[in-house]
Design brief:
This protein is of the alpha+beta class and 446 residues long. It is built from 12 helices and 28 strands. It folds into 4 domains: 157 residues, DNA Polymerase III, Chain A, domain 2 (Roll), CATH 3.10.150; 119 residues, DNA Polymerase III, Chain A, domain 2 (Roll), CATH 3.10.150; 75 residues, Arc Repressor Mutant, subunit A (Orthogonal Bundle), CATH 1.10.10; 77 residues, no CATH class. 25% of the residues lie in helices and 30% in strands. α3 runs antiparallel to α8 and α10 crosses α12.
């Protein structure tokens, strides 16, 4: 979100949590000193331990475990809830804490997106938060001491890796494809969290399977099972063990191994944790939106849709269709571009998109996806042509010294390429540039 900084630090006392915010994007434009909420938290330990779980995740590299430096969560205020989002240092774990309006009392939730400071001092203080009946919560400037001019030099720069933006887009699309598989009750959910290996444990995998007694980790696939690779990546959820009231598991609709998500139900809150198919894979490289970005008019659709968004916690696609004059498919394509720019997320609980804001950069979606750029070059240089068989296309790629021609076959929306990327299993991380080039050309001549 650009080069920004915190002029204050978050603070915690016995009966108050004051979260420092970086400059925010709001419905009224950029705000240097935002205030998103001022009131009370009805479940202070849930708020504190939820934030600590996010801090644990963003400071951990789960692939070849290494503790690392802190990153600053993305915080969005939606008017009826606060959402804080992070990725692990290895980018293979995504987590989102939803603090619902029912747990926020005595004040109104504002609208906007920024980063929130949860530094080491704040983490230590959060760990001591008790179950006080009256707990003040300030999200923004209202509850903080403003830095004096002489202290301005101590301003801490926001730490948010650039790859979080494409990762947010891939998470949105991958989670949009998930189906709710099963839900564990309070007892089973707590038993599951107790059994999760520590973050330092060696990676293990298995099929998480519901049973009459709760669940089991099976070595083979069974009915309604979800494959989990790297169970240790769920370890941050254990902080919330005393507060968990249930846990819902989401997985690929076809039941095959994929990138599952786990949603922990809490009093007046939810914490969602999503992991990649393998612990060594990062969300930023998953390529789930590549085909959606390849269309010729998707940027125009995104511009129309973007003008109608206002930090909705649940985006109404039918309203966007009516007010934009686009078709439902065109609205969806516009949302895909906005997701690739980090501006739209997906809530598996609501089964709907939600809006967060990032600095406007219309070219970012293409810049962050070099396969789309390469595919457009292939089309522009007329290196894609129909093959000799029905549904076949030839893509002339390679280099001048080592030219190569690849065959792409299209049938019923499925595309297959003879390139090494496709043949070695890269296809589940998005289409190759040859398939994207064919999709672009097919759309242009339609």
């Amino acid at each position: 979100m650009g080069v920004r900084g915190f002029t204050t630090a978050s603070s915690v006392t016995r009966d108050r949590l004051a979260l420092a915010l970086a400059p925010a994007l709001t419905p009224d434009g950029p705000v240097a000193s935002p205030s998103f909420f001022h009131g009370f938290a009805t479940e202070p330990q849930v708020v504190a331990r939820g934030l600590l779980s996010l801090a644990d995740i963003t400071a951990t590299r789960y692939f070849k475990y290494t503790p690392t430096t802190q990153r600053d969560p993305v915080l969005t205020a939606h008017g009826d809830r606060l959402r804080a989002e992070v990725f692990s240092a290895c980018n293979s774990v995504y987590a989102r804490l939803d603090l619902l309006d029912s747990g926020l009392d005595g004040g109104e939730v504002a609208y906007g997106t920024t980063n929130v400071d949860i530094g080491m001092a704040t983490r230590r203080a959060l760990a001591s938060v008790g179950r006080d009946e009256l707990f003040h919560l300030d999200v923004g400037l209202h509850g903080l001491t403003v830095a004096t001019p002489s202290a301005a030099a101590a301003e801490r720069r926001v730490e948010m890796p650039d790859r979080w933006v494409p990762a947010l887009g891939n998470v949105a699309e991958m989670h949009r494809r998930l189906a709710r598989v099963f839900t564990l009750d309070r007892a089973a959910a707590r038993t599951l969290l107790t059994s999760i290996p520590a973050a330092t444990a060696a990676p293990s995998a298995g099929w998480l399977t519901p049973t009459a007694a709760g669940f089991r980790i099976a070595p083979r696939r069974t009915d309604r099972a979800v494959h989990v690779s790297g169970l240790h990546r769920l370890s941050a959820l254990r902080r919330l063990l005393p507060h968990v009231t249930g846990l819902t598991v989401y997985g690929p609709a076809d039941g095959e191994p994929g990138a599952p998500a786990f949603e922990v139900e809490l009093p007046h809150a939810r914490l969602l944790l999503g992991i990649t198919k393998e612990a060594w894979r990062g969300f930023s490289g998953e390529g789930s939106l590549l085909s959606a970005l390849a269309g010729p008019d998707v940027s125009d659709h995104a511009a129309l849709v973007s003008a109608l968004l206002a930090f909705e916690p649940v985006i109404d696609i039918e309203r966007l269709r009516r007010e934009s004059g686009l078709t439902t498919a065109e609205v969806e394509s516009g949302l895909a571009v906005l997701a690739a720019s980090g501006r739209v997320g997906w809530d598996v609980h609501e089964h709907a998109h939600f809006h967060r804001e990032m600095p406007d950069d219309p070219e970012r979606a293409v810049r962050d996806n070099p396969r789309v750029r390469a595919a457009r070059r292939l089309v522009a240089h007329r290196l894609v042509e129909p093959g000799t068989e029905p549904g076949e296309w030839l893509v002339h790629a390679g280099t001048r010294s080592e030219p190569a021609t690849y065959s792409v076959r299209a049938a019923d929306g499925d595309f297959r390429c003879t390139c090494t990327w496709q043949l070695t299993g890269g296809g589940d991380r998005g289409a190759c540039k040859h398939v994207l080039a064919v999709q672009i050309l097919m759309e242009e001549i339609r």
